[in-house]
Specification:
It is a single chain. The protein is α/β, with parallel strands linked by helices and about 425 residues long. The chain is about 25% helix and about 15% strand. A hairpin with a 7-residue loop joins strand 12 and strand 13.
């Protein structure tokens, strides 16, 4: 077997600082990679796709487009492949974005998942297709072996670590990873460290088993993964969205139009943290396009600073992280301070004792300290959970249960109020 992504055996992960944020819980797991979104029944064929994209208006993205469409920014989509022939992606996919073995069948998508993520990020909306949050951005497709890929196709597909390294060496500024694997993979962890050293931002889906075992998997557990949770139309954390100390930001993840399958004939409503990660990636593209001289640290810091929340920006919700991504807020701010270019806004969380420079930060980054007892998301005392929405499918098989992380109750109404100020 080529990597832990397809390994089928019990493996125990070594704890990192991000694991320490999770109360030190590390479980033995049976490995299987899965996409982190679930497809529901298709809407009527005549339905206008744009009208179903409620999150664009919710986030006031059309207003953001007056300032930035993501032009000049490339986003690597590591997924099931990306079909460049859909009406919404024609001219949007950089087929030669990566080369060599890692480019194997990158434009072949048998499930429709990777193509959907690409459209959510950079679709033009042509032909009644999905309109991306950053329609001016371009997509670099990289196909890895997701569930369902068998035989020679599986063996020839690059492993996740090689895909991440290829994305890191490409012109992509942002890497979207809407997948999860319950087995740890040290090669993937090292690849993410490498990508971070190249200044890339890696947005990773948090997972869909929040209403089940609620265990975090990989790569979201690794340093430098920006974990993205899902919220629904009411502005509250989705019931399925995996919650805990690996959640950094949140984005829409319920009733999101996506391709029903690899036939590319109709869109279905999807729920999951896969589209949430894609929306967060596209949000970063909008900001980076408007501020091309910023570093990834500065782009991420401004997204954190402007995130929608009802709690202090120095605190973190276990369900929604620092809050809802609101790129428009960054774009309209005339005097926004992006902070130091070389300072990681999540430095404390990303500290890795296995890294070459293993000294932990003396404290968390200014303005973004580690969680404190009593803060939203802390485990200081049992309290009521936030309001949640529907969703009832566990997409990853889990062996072993990690410790739960509690959240401050009563946040549902406050979160809704914050969302309306997008």
């Amino acid at each position: 077997m080529k990597s832990g992504i397809r390994r089928r055996g019990a493996i125990t992960a070594r704890p990192t600082r991000r694991d320490a944020r999770r109360l030190g819980a590390v479980c033995a797991a049976l490995g299987a990679l899965a996409a982190t979104s679930v497809t529901l029944a298709p809407e009527a064929a005549a339905a206008d796709t744009r009208s179903r994209q409620w999150y664009l208006d919710d986030m006031r993205i059309p207003e953001a487009w007056k300032i930035s469409t993501g032009k000049g920014v490339e986003v690597a989509v590591i997924d099931s492949g990306v079909n460049p022939g859909t009406s919404s992606l024609k001219g949007q996919v950089l087929i030669d974005g990566v080369s060599g073995a890692v480019a194997y069948h990158s434009t072949r998508d048998d499930t429709g998942h990777g193509t959907s993520m690409a459209e959510i990020i950079a679709g033009t909306g042509a032909g009644n297709g999905i309109r991306g949050v950053a329609p001016g951005a371009k997509i670099i497709p990289i196909r890895i072996a997701t569930d369902g890929l068998k035989g020679a196709e599986e063996e020839k597909a690059p492993t996740a670590d090689k895909a991440i390294r290829a994305a890191a060496d490409s012109d992509a500024k942002i890497i979207n990873m809407s997948f999860g694997n319950i087995a740890p993979d040290e090669d993937m962890k090292a690849a993410m460290r490498y990508a971070a050293s190249k200044g890339k931002l890696m947005f990773v889906s948090a997972g869909n088993n929040g209403d089940k075992a609620n265990t975090f998997d990989y790569p979201v557990r690794y340093p430098f993964a920006i974990g993205v949770a899902a919220y629904d139309k009411s502005g509250t954390a989705a019931k399925f969205s995996t919650h805990g100390d690996y959640v950094d930001l949140s984005a829409p993840g319920v009733d999101i139009p996506s391709w029903c399958d690899g036939k590319f004939t109709e869109y279905c409503n999807t729920w999951g943290t896969s589209p949430s990660a894609a929306i967060a990636s596209a949000s970063a593209a909008l900001v980076w396009s408007a501020h091309p001289n910023w570093t990834g640290n500065q782009v991420l810091r401004t997204l954190i600073d402007t995130a929608g929340r009802s709690w202090s920006k120095n605190e973190v919700s276990s369900y929604l992280g620092y809050g809802f991504v609101r790129p428009r807020r960054v774009l309209i701010a005339k005097d926004i301070n992006p902070g130091p270019p070389n300072e990681d806004p999540l430095a404390y969380q990303n500290w890795d004792p296995d890294a070459p420079t293993s000294a932990p930060p003396s404290s968390a980054s200014p303005g973004h300290p580690a969680k404190k007892a009593g803060a939203p998301g802390s485990s200081a005392a049992p309290v009521a959970a936030e309001k949640t929405s529907g969703g009832n499918t566990q997409t990853w098989a889990i062996i072993g249960v990690a410790a739960a992380v509690l959240v401050v109750g009563g946040a549902g109404f406050a979160v809704l109020r914050a969302r309306r100020n997008a």
